[in-house]
Design the sequence.
């Protein structure tokens, strides 16, 4: 009878350890989900910032190109690139 009691006590102890481990892991999963969500939001923000900077760079390039009248060929290249980007954006929107 003492052996059965010892076995049952051991089983209860192991169950208690498993419950504690499960609780800890569940909390860790929730924390990681929260961190993942924050990082995704930050990534979206950084992507938006990158797009804005790219647009600003394009404006600066156009301004610099337009300011020098001798460089009409590079102006044409910049405009062609912008038209390609606009066309690509429109194609993506239409999908």
Sequence:
């Amino acid at each position: 009878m003492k052996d059965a009691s010892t076995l049952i006590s051991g089983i209860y102890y192991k169950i208690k350890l498993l419950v504690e481990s499960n609780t800890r892991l569940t909390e860790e999963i929730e924390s990681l989900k929260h961190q993942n969500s924050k990082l995704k939001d930050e990534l979206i923000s950084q992507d938006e910032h990158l797009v804005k900077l790219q647009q600003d760079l394009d404006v600066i390039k156009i301004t610099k190109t337009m300011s020098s009248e001798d460089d009409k060929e590079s102006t044409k290249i910049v405009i062609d690139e912008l038209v390609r980007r606009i066309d690509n954006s429109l194609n993506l929107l239409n999908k």
Summary: The chain has a mean pLDDT of 87.
